[in-house]
Specification:
The complex is a heterodimer of chains A (about 475) and B (about 350). Chain A has about 475 residues and is of the alpha/beta class. Chain A contains 18 helices and 20 strands. In chain A, the strands form 6 sheets. Chain A has an 8-stranded mixed beta sheet with strand order 12-11-10-9-6-17-18-19. In chain B, the strands form 3 sheets. Chain B has an 8-stranded parallel beta sheet with strand order 8-9-10-11-12-13-14-15, covered by helices on one side. Classes of the chains: A alpha/beta (about 475), B alpha/beta (about 350).
Chain lengths: ~475, ~350
């Protein structure tokens, strides 16, 4: 009846804006991003019209042309917009990623041990026969044709037999990858036999030059020498692609930037995951200050990245990158490309990956394991015998989406960002702090601010590095639109 | 070139579909047509439809081929060659577009062969991807979808690749195309520009772009696998960057985007001078489009681009796309270490262009 009274409402008059949020990046430079992750930059005048709800017809035309508004008859535009939103959401697949802790024993005693450890002479801190059988049974029942296993510790090289047993059970998978997270103190024939596999990689810590590494980790000249000798041996034998190394930085006294970079470059390692000491495990006691990173850390990080950009521009033979910044950068443009489980939204736990501790307990993440170990809160979601489809897991999973957070819902970077429940619990003992009061939020606000400043910077050296980090074959001259 | 049509002498009176078998594969299936004897010039086979003698191909190269034998014309057509990854069934020569560079200019009449094609597909070697082309196959949408559904129901090892202008799907098809069987169908859909008048001009049909957008919505909503195809032309080369932005914004659901160099055949032969883009000497607009596509994570590839004609950093995108039976190489290509991965040239490519190859 309404239609007869008023006639057909012309469908192309039906005009709607997408959910556009804005943030000032610099004087006269405002970033606009919608919930699908599309973005552009504009000057003060447009920002004022936007804020005052005074957009002109030509403003509207610009927004419509670039996917920030739609008329009702643009079915493809509306469907594509929804597709782009959905594409950015995690749809966890079947379980195919395990972090296994075959032993909690370790032959080092690092000042900020993140993972908790016990002395290597102690007994009762390794997988039992029953635990091993249960893990193998879980592997046998996986429906996928791919598997990734990270051996953590403790120091997993103390139990090569357990790693061998697990790896042998994975032969049926079409795609498999193994990572041994090791301090490289032990490199014997048993370990070399494992490393000979092309699908097995080494992850280790390299805190910079020998002095820094010794102060923070090895604590004796012999052990330091052993680490560097073994690192060199692995790289000489298998090439630098075999190894990923992560530096842990004491933000209170960070190392000289070029010296740190050089200590990686001399080993042929070009991807550097710059991490401040994690407020976990023993670090909670020994490094109280690591709960929050302040502006000095963020400024160190920016200077580090700026230096990488300069060095990439000077020497085109290889590409240096800060691993996490690259991950965030690719999340802006290439949703779904990364499977970095620390930054995704929603971030469900106990679905596509789990952590199995030395005693068969199942944790949602390695950080959750540390928190439980440190006696802060028990975040176990199950065990390898009874499974982990538990109320504890479901309760955590009710709070893993940034779509539900009132602050995130107004945030310019929501589409690119994630949620890390465990990190909030670790630092604050609660998950309901206003986002802006959390380290996770401040860290990512800074990273995305920094990235968008870089993306709009008029400097060929910056564009060169950004293009490499985005894995482009060519070098772009612009990465994002500007209102005009 | 690999011969697709053979001289044939057959007992039968009506055309029939046969699967040829030579030892040691003979006798695997009661419907097979089995090798009797032959030499390098041809072979005789016997099956449910009697005897047939085929000329021009040694018998071992025919093993597993599905052929249509037409006794009246004395011809046999190799519909599905066992050794080929490029089998294509031409289901109609009618088309509702008239693209400026059409490699297979349309005809007004339609000769319905769906029954033959369906039988052939059911006899295909395991694991084949069967191409379907035209004309515009979806002008016979009911026959086409029915054939695909029945073949994929009976054969869970097969898949289809259908070239279509995607303008004949309706909202009612969305549910039908959501059937899991269609996950084994890739729709190869041409899009030449983000600018509607330019696209319409290239395909020779007013309103085509608008209808195509409707088609894309329906394919997206049905979860279809779409391979977007863009032939490089003098008309659209400078609009390629805009097209890349359009695809990144509006067609993110595509499974692949193939940017294709022109084929010197059909309408393009006479219009070559006006249509062909010498990409080896003018790669910048293509590179710019590739950069934008890669920035947004689009799975982009270059088809029919010989590897030595593509700048080194983009070379890995150049796929060996030209079908084996219509591919040729320049004499100098014999010394190239990348020939194995290289698409080469269409057999009908102008020979003077072949002199410009630079063996890698």
């Amino acid at each position: 009846m309404g239609a007869e009274l008023f006639g057909e409402f012309p469908p192309d008059r039906d005009f709607a804006y997408t959910d556009i949020r804005t943030r000032q990046l610099a004087d006269g430079a405002h970033l606009f991003v919608n919930e699908a992750g599309r973005f552009f930059q504009a000057e003060d005048a447009f920002a004022a019209r936007f804020r005052e709800n005074l957009l002109s017809l030509s403003d509207d035309a610009f927004l419509e042309r670039h996917g920030f508004a739609f008329t009702g008859n643009d079915r493809l535009g509306a469907a594509s917009h929804n597709y782009a939103i959905a594409e950015r959401l995690t749809a966890p697949g079947a379980l195919d990623y395990f972090i296994l802790v075959p032993t909690l024993r370790c032959n080092l005693d690092c000042s900020y041990c993140q993972v908790s450890r016990v002395d290597q002479a102690r007994s009762g801190f390794d997988w039992s026969e029953e635990t091993l059988s249960a893990v193998l049974a879980i592997i046998d029942h996986l429906p996928t044709d791919c598997i990734k296993i990270e051996f953590q510790g403790g120091e997993p090289t103390l139990r090569p037999d357990l790693m061998r047993a697990v790896i042998a059970r994975c032969e049926r998978f079409a795609h498999k990858q193994f990572v041994i997270c090791t301090n490289l103190q032990v490199l014997n024939d048993d370990i070399f036999a494992l490393l000979d596999r092309d699908d097995l990689f080494v992850s280790t810590s390299l805190d910079g030059d020998a002095l820094t590494h010794e102060r923070q980790r090895t604590r004796s000249p012999e052990r330091t020498a052993r680490f560097f000798t073994n690192l060199r041996a692995v790289i000489d034998r298998y090439g630098p692609r075999k190894v990923s190394a992560l530096p842990t930085i004491d933000a209170a006294s960070p190392p000289d930037i070029d010296a740190l970079i050089d200590s990686f470059v001399t080993h042929g390692l070009h991807s550097i995951f710059l991490r401040p000491i994690n407020f976990q495990g023993f670090a909670r006691k020994r490094h109280r200050e690591s709960r929050e990173q302040d502006d000095s850390w963020r400024s160190y990080h920016e200077r580090f990245v700026r230096r990488l950009i300069e060095r990439n521009w000077q020497d085109r033979s290889r590409v240096l990158e800060e691993t996490y910044l690259s991950i965030c950068l690719r999340r802006i443009f290439q949703p779904g490309r990364e499977r970095h489980v620390d930054l995704r939204n929603p971030n469900p736990v106990g679905e596509d990956y789990i952590v199995v501790d030395y005693d068969g307990t199942v944790y949602p993440t390695d950080e959750a394991r540390m928190l439980s170990r440190s006696g802060v809160i028990d975040l176990a979601i199950g065990d390898v015998w009874q499974g982990w489809q538990t109320e504890a897991r479901d309760m955590l999973n009710r709070h893993v989406s940034n779509l539900d957070d009132p602050t995130c819902r107004t945030c310019t970077y929501q589409a690119f960002c994630g949620r890390d429940l465990i990190d909030d619990i670790a630092r604050y003992g609660r998950i309901d702090l206003p986002r802006h009061d959390t380290e996770f939020c401040r860290r990512h606000l800074h990273l995305f601010d920094f990235l968008f400043r870089l993306l709009y910077e008029d400097d060929p050296a910056v564009r060169y590095s950004l293009s490499r980090w985005l894995r482009l074959d060519g070098t772009l001259t612009e990465f994002g639109g500007v209102f005009a | 070139m690999i011969p697709l049509r053979l001289s044939a002498v057959a007992d039968a009176e009506q055309p029939y579909v046969a699967k040829l078998r030579t030892p040691p594969n003979s006798g695997l299936n009661p419907h097979d047509t089995l090798y009797l004897d032959g030499d390098e010039f041809g072979a005789s086979f016997a099956g449910p439809h009697g005897l047939v003698t085929l000329e021009g191909v040694p018998p071992d190269e025919l093993d597993g081929d599905v052929v249509v034998v037409d006794p009246a014309t004395g011809r046999a057509e190799r519909l599905l060659r066992a050794a080929s990854a490029h089998n294509t069934l031409l289901v109609t020569e009618r088309c509702d577009q008239l693209c400026v560079m059409c490699s297979q200019p349309p005809k007004k009449t339609h000769h319905d062969r769906f029954a033959q094609f369906e039988l052939a597909c059911l006899l295909a070697e395991r694991g084949q991807v069967i191409g379907i082309s035209g004309g515009e196959p979806t002008l016979y949408k009911e026959e086409l979808l029915g054939m695909i559904e029945r073949v994929l129901e009976a054969r869970d090892d097969l898949a289809f690749h259908v070239l279509t202008n995607a303008q004949h799907f309706t909202d009612a098809d969305i549910t039908r195309l959501r059937d899991p069987r269609f996950q084994r169908v890739t729709w190869g859909v041409p899009l030449y520009a983000a600018d509607a008048p330019l696209h319409d001009h290239i395909v020779g049909k007013d309103g085509a772009f608008r209808q195509l957008e409707d088609g894309f919505v329906r394919l997206m909503l049905s979860g279809a696998r779409v391979e977007l195809r863009t032939v490089l032309l003098a008309d659209n080369v400078d609009a390629l960057q805009d097209l890349a932005r359009y695809v990144a914004a509006r067609l993110r659901f595509i499974a692949a985007w193939s940017i294709m160099q022109l084929e010197h055949i059909g309408f393009a032969r006479n219009r070559w001078r006006h249509l062909y883009v010498d990409h080896a000497n003018r790669f910048a607009p293509i590179a710019a489009a590739l950069d934008i596509a890669q920035l947004h994570g689009l799975p982009v590839r270059l088809f029919n681009f010989p590897r030595c004609t593509v700048p080194e950093n983009y070379r890995h995108l150049a796929a060996a796309s030209i079908s084996d039976w219509k591919r040729k190489y320049a004499p100098a290509c014999a010394d190239c270490r990348e020939q194995r991965d290289c698409t080469g040239f269409f057999a009908w490519h102008p020979d003077e262009a072949l002199n410009e190859v630079q063996p890698l």
